[in-house]
Amino acid sequence: MNFGLALVILGGFLLGGAWSIWRADSDTAGRTGPQVVFAVILLIAALLATASGILRLV
C-alpha cells in the first residue's frame, strides 16, 4: 500500500467523522457553533487529504 492510497483512505475517515458530527444535533437547540466549526475543519482536512492522495497516485 502506497502513501497516496493511505491519504485517500484517511480522507474517507475524516469525511465520515465530519458527517457524524454534522448529524449529531440537539433536538431543541439544533447544531451548536463548535459542532459546525469542527465539522467544517474535518471537511476541509478530508478534502485536502483526498486531493493530496489522488495527486500522489497520479
Question: Your description of this structure?
Answer:
The protein is an all-alpha fold and 58 residues long. It has one domain (3-57). The protein is built from two helices and no strands. The longest helix is centred in the last third of the chain and has 25 residues, at 33-57. The chain is elongated. Keywords: Membrane, Transmembrane, Transmembrane helix. The chain crosses the membrane at residues 36-55.
Brief rundown of the structure:
The chain crosses the membrane at residues 36-55. By secondary structure, the protein is mostly helical. The protein has one domain.
Annotate the secondary structure layout.
Blueprint: H1 3-23, H2 33-57
Helix pairs in contact: 1-2
Keywords: Membrane, Transmembrane, Transmembrane helix
Transmembrane segments: 36-55
Quote the beta fraction: under 5%
By helix and strand content, what is the structural category? mainly alpha
Shape: elongated
Q: Care to count the β-strands?
A: 0
Mean pLDDT: 90
Q: Number of helical segments? A: 2
Helix content range: over 70%
Number of domains: 1
The helix-strand sequence is HH
What is the straight-line distance between the termini?
Answer: 15 Å
- Return Rg in Å: 14 Å
Main beta sheet strand tally, sense and closure: none
Question: Which runs of at least 5 residues are low in confidence (pLDDT < 50)?
Answer: none
Keywords: Membrane, Transmembrane, Transmembrane helix
